[in-house]
Amino acid sequence: VKFDFGLVHGLNEASQAKQKLVAELVRMVKELGSMALAEGVETEAEAEICRQMGFDLIQGYLTGRPAPLDSLRA
User: Fold this and answer.
1) Residues whose CB is less than 8 angstroms from the CB of residue 5 and which lie 6 or more positions away in sequence, other chains included
2) pTM for the complete prediction?
3) What is the spatial distance between Cα 28 and Cα 3, in angstroms, rounded to a whole number?
4) How far apart are CA 68 and CA 6, in angstroms?
5) Quick check: helix, strand or coil at residue 9?
6) Per the CB 3.0–4.6 Å rule, which of 26, 35, 38, 70 could disulfide with 8?
7) How does pLDDT run along the chain (74 residues), one tens digit per residue?
8) Pick from 44, 49, 61: which is nearest to 11 by CA?
9) Which whole-number Å values give the CA distances from 46 to 21, 33, 71, in the listed order?
């Protein structure tokens, strides 16, 4: 289950209430047997809180910039 950029971006600086909500959603997703993917991870601090919350995967500028599809053929 992909967690949108709007939920993940700046999560390390978000209120305790938002962090608790996202952590609970991650727990429920995993309890149902799915994987949790955090979209929009741009900093090490965001990645660390995602790790602490139990996300399985991250996606965003921290791990790689968008690239033109044609560049993959080269």
Assistant:
1) 39, 40, 60
2) 0.86
3) 13
4) 24
5) coil
6) 38
7) 999 999 999 999 999 999 999 999 999 999 999 999 999 999 999 999 999 999 999 999 999 987 787 877 75
8) 49
9) 16, 24, 28
